[in-house]
Write a structure and sequence with these properties.
6 strands; alpha+beta; 60s Ribosomal Protein L30, Chain: A; six-stranded mixed beta sheet
Length: about 130
């Protein structure tokens, strides 16, 4: 089974699906800090990290999932000096047993974003989207 996950309140910066469910796994495309109209949020790196995580939550919800279903997250930063600030915001979204994670520096991101977050969720216990 392969199903694209979309939603009216989910923005993308290009021709791709916000997420793809393949069997029991959900592969979430990188979420940048854009609002539902597709505009980059104002503010510093903390605001951008928060918006990217809120966008991630929105995509997960559209698939019937939540942050607790995440098994792997990758964070992309334009400037590694933002690591501590992003890490603090990120940590506020997770309780015990956060997902595995990597954080890498990149030259640039779409729309001038300073952070992008992609994820993989395991939905083995979640209901199927087949109808």
């Amino acid at each position: 089974m392969r199903k694209a996950i979309t939603g009216s309140d989910i923005s993308t910066a290009g021709p791709y699906s916000p997420a793809i469910r393949a069997g029991d796994f959900l592969f979430v495309s990188g979420q940048i800090p854009i609002d539902p109209e597709g505009e980059l949020v104002a503010g510093g790196i903390e605001d951008q990290a928060r918006q990217a995580l809120e966008n991630l939550k929105r995509v997960l919800a559209a698939a019937g999932a939540s942050l607790t279903d995440l098994v792997k997250v990758t964070i992309y930063l334009v400037d590694m000096s933002d690591f501590a600030a992003v890490n603090e915001v990120y940590g506020s979204y997770f309780d015990l047993e956060p997902p595995a994670r990597a954080c890498v520096a990149v030259k640039e991101l779409p729309k001038g974003a300073r952070v992008e977050i992609e994820a993989v969720a395991y939905l083995g216990g979640a209901p199927s989207l087949d109808k």
